Amino acid sequence: MKLGMIGLGRMGANMARRLARAGIEVVAFDANAEARAGLASEARTTIATSLEDVVAQLAAPRIVWIMLPAGDVTEQTVTALAGLLAKGDVIVDGGNANYRDSKRRAQTLSERGLHFVDAGVSGGVWGLANGYAIMFGGSTAAASIVEPVIRALAPTPDTGWLHCGPAGSGHFVKMVHNGIEYGMMQALAEGLALMEAKREFDLDLGAITEMWRHGSVVRSWLLDLTADFLRDDAAVDAVKPFVADSGEGRWTALEAIELGVPTPVMSLALMARFASQGKDDFASKLLALMRAGFGGHAVKQ
Question: Is 147 one of the catalytic residues?
Answer without folding.
Answer: no
